[in-house]
Amino acid sequence: MSARLERATFCAVGTSCAAAVTAGPHDARRARAALGAAQAEVAACERALSRFDAASDLSRLNAAGGAWTAVDGRLVEALRLALRAREDTGGRFDPTVLPALVAAGYDRSFEQLAERPARRAAGWHAGAAVELDESSGGARLEPGAAVDLGGIGKGYAASRALAAMREAWPMLPGGLVDLGGDLALWGETPEQGPWRIAVADPRHPGTNAGVLLLRSGGVATSGRDVRRFGPGRSLHHLIDPATGEPARPGPLAVTVVAPDAAEAEAHATALAISPPAAALAHAAAQPGISALYIPHDGDAIPLGSPPLAQTGFVLRAA
Amino acid sequence: MQRIWTVVLSVWAMLATVAVLAWTHRPVASPSPAAAAQTLVVKGANGKQQLVVVQPGAVGATHATTSTSGVVR
After folding, report:
1. pLDDT tens digits for A243-287?
2. How many whole angstroms separate alpha carbon A54 and alpha carbon A11?
3. Which of A68, A183, A199, A243 counts the most CB atoms within 10 A of its CB?
């Protein structure tokens, strides 16, 4: 009997999730332990990082009014990654956009959103100060600032969940964690080839814009094709830190491949508010990432050298 | 004796000709239907038609799909 993919699906972080491991015929118990560890780690990350849970560490930090707050180590690490991403993206990814996001109307968990006109966040500015004390596990925000780790938090949780699977099953041949399309993957597939990750084409539901072939790393997609809200669903959740409003230029969706899922998410968010020329420049300055940029119309644009299988490319408009 | 050599040379000449013809007229291996790319015309959300080439790799199963995260309601 050959290896197969053991999979668990669950709902967390406001979306559909899955974890999968490559398992042999006698690995059922180890596979269950690894998949359980992944799910438990995602739940722990959600308790630390969710802005929709008033009891989460992030909610306590956001409500602390600029005071130092003792928080879970996961939040400190996720904030450190987010601050580094803000620097790497020249501020196009900014975890402190939350006041602008709330003012735009995304003020509660997406499934509970009510329709109301967008406002501008009074007095908000990008690049608010965030201080971390990694030795004691504390964090502090500039007074009036608030943090959202929605996207990068999913990527971070996916990486943590993959690490938890490897810890629960030290001889794990290979595994994958998928949190609503943010993926962390590593090791062997049951077929002993690369992981084959389909990139959904938002312009043609049910079809793929390509298939990525990966041995390890992270994949994330950000776009304005879903999570729309406000009058006539005219608004989306991608805030441009330069304006404090939902971004106008940018693709319908962009998929980023990076060594780590959190890194992939941060760059996907930055590219998702970038017109094609800026996206090309961004990718050129970041040799560690590659991307597939899917505009509203026209051909999908590879940025860098995404590891695409030759599949389903749109050649040209007929 | 001369007649025997003539026959032998004739047979060799004929075999050589057949070999050359067989070599130069080898059947060309045609791609199997499974390996052939397909060209499809699809209509986008904006109503424009696009040509899409689906290569054989597209047929293979994938392990996961990445997309903008949906919302669980």
Report:
1. 888 888 889 999 999 999 999 999 999 999 999 999 999 999 999
2. 19
3. A183
Put simply, the answer to whether A318 touches B62 (Cβ < 8 Å) is no
- Chain B residue with the nearest C-alpha to that of A268: B68
From A88-92, A200-204, A223-227, B26-30, the region with the lowest mean pLDDT: B26-30
Q: Is A258 on the interface with B (CB under 8 A)?
A: no
Element (H, E) at A86: helix A73-88
Write down the pLDDT at residue A117.
60
| A227 contacts A42 by C-beta, under 8 angstroms | no
For A187-213, what is each residue's pLDDT tens digit? 999 999 999 999 999 998 889 999 999
Q: Which residues of B22-32 are buried (b: 16+ CB within 10 A; e: fewer)?
A: eeeeeeeeeee
Structure tokens belonging to residue A278: 């800026």
> Which chain A positions have a beta carbon within 8 Å of B45's beta carbon?
203-204
A211/B62 Cβ within 8 A: yes
B24, B33, B27: which is closest to B56 by C-alpha?
B33
| A257 vs A157: CA distance, rounded Å | 16
Distance CA A135, CA A67 (A): 17
User: Which tokens in the block code for residue A305?
Assistant: 């050298």
User: What token pair was written down for A303?
Assistant: 């940025």
Separation of alpha carbons A264 and B44, rounded Å? 28
Question: What confidence score (pLDDT) does residue A242 get?
Answer: 83
From residue A216, how far is each of A49, A54, A91, A259 by CA, in Å?
25, 35, 27, 7
Q: Which residue reads 């998949």 in tokens?
A: A35
ipTM reported for the complex, 2 dp: 0.86
- Closest-approach residue (CA) in chain B for A223: B68
Could you tell me which residue, A7 or B19, shows the higher pLDDT?
A7
How many angstroms away from the CA of A18 is the closest CA of chain B?
9
CB nearest to A178's CB, from B42, B49, B64: B64
The first and second tokens of residue B4, run together, are 């025997």
Chain A positions touching B57 (Cβ under 8 A) are: 211, 309-311
Length of chain B: 73
